[in-house]
Amino acid sequence: MQTTTYSVTGMTCAHCVSSVSSEVSQLAGVTDVQVDLATGTVSVTSAEPLDRAAVAAAVDEAGYELAVTP
Ligand SMILES: [Cu+2]
């Protein structure tokens, strides 16, 4: 079990939070998704390490983008 936090750009309200949350939680192996609107981050808990590209695709599907990590 591991939790990875990603920065997501473009989330502005509770609707954005629920869109991202529902898309990311559909990824295989994901057991928990916590979206923090104030910081624009998504913490994803999964049984196995996730492919960042898969998370990016889910976030994109919701209409947002993963911020490029420094
Ligand atoms: Cu919104």
From TrEMBL:
InterPro entries: Cu-bd, Heavy-metal-associated_CS, HMA_dom, HMA_dom_sf
Gene3D superfamilies documented for this protein: 3.30.70.100
Gene Ontology BP terms: copper ion transport
Domain HMA: 2-67
The entry's keywords: Metal-binding
The keyword Iron-sulfur appears for this protein: no
One term of GO molecular function: copper ion binding
Annotated protein name in UniProt: Copper chaperone CopZ
Organism classification: Bacteria, Bacillati, Actinomycetota, Actinomycetes, Micromonosporales
Species assigned in the record: Actinoplanes lutulentus
Signal peptide: none
Domain of life, source organism: Bacteria
Coiled-coil region(s): none
